[in-house]
Amino acid sequence: xxxxxxxxxxxxxxxxxxxxxxxxxxxxxxxxxxxxxxxxxxxxxxxxxxxxxxxxxxxxxxxxxxxxxxxxxxxxxxxxxxxxxxxxxxxxxxxxxxxxxxxxxxxxxxxxxxxxxxxxxxxxxxxxxxxxxxxxxxxxxxxxxxxxxxxxxxxxxxxxxxxxxxxxxxxxxxxxxxxxxxxxxxxxxxxxxxxxxxxxxxxxxxxxxxxxxxxxxxxxxxxxxxxxxxxxxxxxxxxxxxxxxxxxxxxxxxxxxxxxxxxxxxxxxxxxxxxxxxxxxxxxxxxxxxxxxxxxxxxxxxxxxxxxxxxxxxxxxxxxxxxxxxxxxxxxxxxxxxxxxxxxxxxxxxxxxxxxxxxxxxxxxxxxxxxxxxxxxxxxxxxxxxxxxxxxxxxxxxxxxxxxxxxxxxxxxx
Length: 414
Fold this sequence. Notes:
alpha/beta, globular
């Protein structure tokens, strides 16, 4: 193994009053990351381009040297869920969400309070798959907790909008009202596709709103998962650069799909069962499993793979929830587990390590931003005292990078 790329989802942030004007990364005690930084170089990265607010798929696709038109979120998530697709099948990423009613159309929570269990989602999905009748076949597949994938079989257009406008390409916006899918051109098939999507969403609400699972959730004081938000429509198979000498430990559907389509040997695990109503207790359990799993895969593939891609998801979530202290604590946990391992694993094996993020998720914004993300490149250079954080990375000798420049600059691709 020559190199390891670690992407910490949503790691980038802005100074926060709760942390005395520091970012979570700057405030965190990260002796192992700092050790790697003292023996390496730092810089900063615009995952797509300056001024652009990326979704995770756009950022990862770009970091690995692809154009954004090479893939769509729906196609990658469907392939990460092992749904068989043929050309013309329309794939979309889905969130179970909470609204007050179709008439009022207020979005209460985009993720049903993050308390929906995968088991509950599977029950709700069965009700949708068994009871909705459309003029076409479809597959509605829950993935992890509030996440799901929707595929319409047949010759559809993907030149439509989703109904989840929180993530508008290249913009930061909060969607607090439900909307409808719309055609983005005058083609008859685009209008037909938007009509089918809207019919599905309306019928889904009728099934979900009064489903026994949601009645029970309301009794327990939980948000009902009574609406579906869809985004990232795609009909074309992704066309991505191939990284066949890489191994991947990504474990969410998007990153699994991206890794598979990119030709990586992909290892993933099932997420822990959501047992408690304490969302962050469950997140820490998932984070612990992710770090432990990644360490095991890196050890196992040290001699067989040239490069490794490790994606850690959980740090993004406190950014969306405006919990800077939780974000700081999660970064500290990753440091004392995964990066403690890499500090001991990399030097004797002469393995270079790159640490960055797919995007910034500033806590005070509660969403992605266009701010650049810090980059650490451990290359066993002579020690210089450094702290890995956004402010120091801006001063680093690696300087400013955009998208696919990163892997070239650190020598992971030629």
